[in-house]
Amino acid sequence: MKRIVLLCALFVGIITCSYAQKFALIDMEYILKNISSYETAQEQLEVMSKKWQGEVEKAQQEVKNMYKSYQSDLVFLSAEQKTQRENAIVEKERGIQELNKKYFGAEGELFKKREALVKPIQDEIYNAVKEISEQKGYQLILDRASAESVIFASPRIDISNDVLAKLGYSK
């Protein structure tokens, strides 16, 4: 009877050990900071964003000027002229909204440019992480930068430098 209990306990222990999961962490911010093409892409996006934001702000200033002019001329305008000016201001505001949507909307130019510049870098990182996880037998890899619920993680399980080395950016 003791042998059967001992064998069952040994069997359960072996099964438990064989199902032990291996975890690892990466720090995506750290990885991206060490990839020069990502920094270049971010700079390009910043320049484009500022340029487009300048266009939008210029158009907004034009609307403000149109409205101030309208306010100052209000007493001198006929009902028809008031309506024309109001419609022109409203039309200009619609144009600004369209411009904003064109540049900064969900399917806007900035989104498309970011997709073109940053997505290939992210895909490359993903593939490197996937290869490392398959080689070393990791079942789960968390991103320390985006996992707010990770309070502490041992540096021994951080494979960020391995990912950089796999991508050719070794430290």
Please describe what this structure looks like:
The chain is mainly α. The chain has one domain (21-167). Helices cover 72% and strands 5% of the residues. The protein is built from 6 helices and 2 strands, in the order αβααααβα. It has a two-stranded parallel ribbon with strand order 1-2. α5 packs across α6 (160-167). The protein is elongated. The model has no long low-confidence stretch (mean pLDDT 85).
Features:
single chain; two-stranded parallel sheet; elongated; mainly alpha; 2 strands; 171 residues; 6 helices
Tally of distinct domains: 1
The tally of helices reads 6
Helix content: over 70%
Q: Strand count, sense and closure of the main sheet?
A: 2 strands, parallel
What is the straight-line distance between the termini?
A: 58 Å
Mean model confidence by pLDDT: 85
Q: Mind sketching the topology for me?
A:
Blueprint: H1 2-18, E1 23-26, H2 28-33, H3 36-73, H4 79-104, H5 109-136, E2 140-143, H6 160-167
Quick overview of this protein structure:
By secondary structure, the protein is mainly alpha-helical. The chain is built from 6 helices and 2 strands.
